[in-house]
Design a protein that fits this description.
heterodimer; A: 209 residues; alpha+beta; four-stranded antiparallel beta sheet; 3 helices; 8 strands; 31% strand; elongated; B: 213 residues; five-stranded antiparallel beta sheet; 9 strands; Emp24-like (chain B); transmembrane (chain B); GOLD_dom (chain B); Transmembrane p24 trafficking protein 4 (chain B)
């Protein structure tokens, strides 16, 4: 009975506190907003990083339910902002690429609300954790930060890699293009010069006399 | 009590949400190593003009979910209801694209022009439901914690393997660029010299023929 109750309550507990991380594409002159309902007193963290596009910068703005701007940065490449919800309601954060005319940006963000859900929902926190348990908790926290650093490293590496692949294709196209232009220009130069001397035979005699 | 907790479960899926237009397609990118499980859950709410608020749920409205692997091959393309849950496991490492768009053709439904979509995408070890695992395998708290740490370390290992693969790709791209720059510079210089020589010879013979030289 207890196990069944646990199973039933588990999604309830699991869905209580969230960490949402998403990577999306922000077209030029576009603005994308995300909303989340937060209860008062919850500690939240918003982290974002621009993965590809232009100068790797984006405008970010975080507002509380009253519309007060809690965080506003223009053309930022990467940032992390922690705040405690001062009231209940829907918090809104927007990413804007409106200053850019033709570059699409890929933006990654990680919005953490509250702490992690407890492993055992029915666990009573009256008794203190044993040494083993607190060691496990600290290892868990350390591993979480390792995973977080890995993510940011992967995003930076994706930046460099997309630039390198861009460069590779551009070098190929431009080299072929330049070779063709070279050939076309040199042949047309010769043809043009020939045309100067072939048609104007009658005119040169007229100018001469 | 059971009904209440079930209802509470559905309502509590109040994660991050955003607004989507009727024909708008929203895509999200997940860069993941291979053999990683991804579970996405979404819930839609339609704007009700009369009530001036969003309806709690929208029966009859569906969302089309399309997932592409790094080679742009579609691995999942399915229609779900207004609330849905999609799962996939990656078989190749790389950028997977998850796209959502509504299947609504009735313009009247979108009179307000907005559909609210609650979305939650969990990747890798976040997909594990620890209370469920504990109940199924009958683990003590310490065993469950150890299990969680093992899963985390496994995810770190997979990510590092993927990083090694990415670094190899990056290195190959850079070396290819290096080769291309080298060969194309040599080729262009040769073309330049050859066309220069050809031009001079051709013009010289042309002027000699025209008796100008």
């Amino acid at each position: 009975m207890l196990a069944w109750f646990l199973l039933l309550c588990a999604p309830l507990m699991f869905g209580w506190i969230r960490a949402s991380e998403l990577t999306f594409e922000l077209p030029d002159n576009a603005k994308q907003c995300f909303y989340e309902d937060i209860t008062i007193g919850t500690k939240c963290t918003l982290e974002f990083q621009v993965v590809t596009g232009g100068h790797y910068d984006v405008d970010c703005r975080l507002e509380d339910p009253d519309g007060t701007v809690l965080y506003k940065e223009m053309k930022k490449q990467y940032d992390s902002f922690t705040f405690t919800a001062s009231r209940n309601g829907t918090f809104k954060f927007c990413f804007s690429n409106e200053f850019s005319t033709f570059t699409h940006k890929t933006v990654y963000f990680d919005f953490q609300v509250g702490d992690d859900p407890p492993l055992f929902p029915s666990e009573n926190r009256v008794t203190a954790l044993t040494q083993m348990e607190s060691a496990c908790v600290s290892i868990h926290e350390a591993l979480k930060s390792v995973i977080d650093y890995q993510t940011h490293f992967r995003l930076r590496e994706a930046q460099g890699r997309s630039r390198a692949e861009d460069l590779n294709t551009r070098v190929a196209f431009w080299s072929i293009g330049e070779a063709c232009i070279l050939l076309v220009v040199s042949i047309s130069q010769v043809v043009l010069l020939r045309s100067f001397f072939s048609d104007k035979k009658t005119t040169t005699t007229r100018v001469g006399s | 009590m059971i009904c209440y907790s079930l209802y509470y479960y559905f309502i509590k899926l109040n994660s991050l949400y955003f607004h989507i237009g009727e024909t708008e397609k929203k895509c999200f990118i997940e860069e993941i190593p291979d053999e990683t499980m991804v579970i996405g859950t979404y819930r839609t709410q339609l704007w009700d003009k009369q009530a001036g608020s969003f309806l709690p749920s929208t029966p009859g409205l569906g969302m089309h979910v399309e997932i592409k692997d790094p080679d742009a091959k579609v691995i999942l393309s399915r229609q779900y209801g207004s609330d849905g849950r999609f799962t996939f496991t990656s078989h190749t490492p790389g950028e997977h694209q998850i796209c959502l768009h509504s299947n609504s053709t009735k313009m009247a439904l979108f009179a307000g022009g907005k559909l609210r979509v609650h979305l939650d995408i969990q990747v890798g070890e976040h997909t594990n439901n620890y209370p469920e695992i504990a109940a199924k395998d009958k683990l003590t708290e310490l065993q469950l914690r150890a299990r969680q740490l093992l899963d985390q370390v496994e995810q770190i290992q997979k990510e590092q393997n993927y990083q090694r693969y990415r670094e190899e790709r990056f290195r190959m791209t850079s070396e290819s660029t290096n080769q291309r720059v080298l060969w194309w510079s040599i080729a262009q210089t040769i073309i330049l010299i050859i066309t220069g020589i050809w031009q001079m010879r051709h013009l010289k013979s042309f002027f000699e023929a025209k008796k100008l030289v």
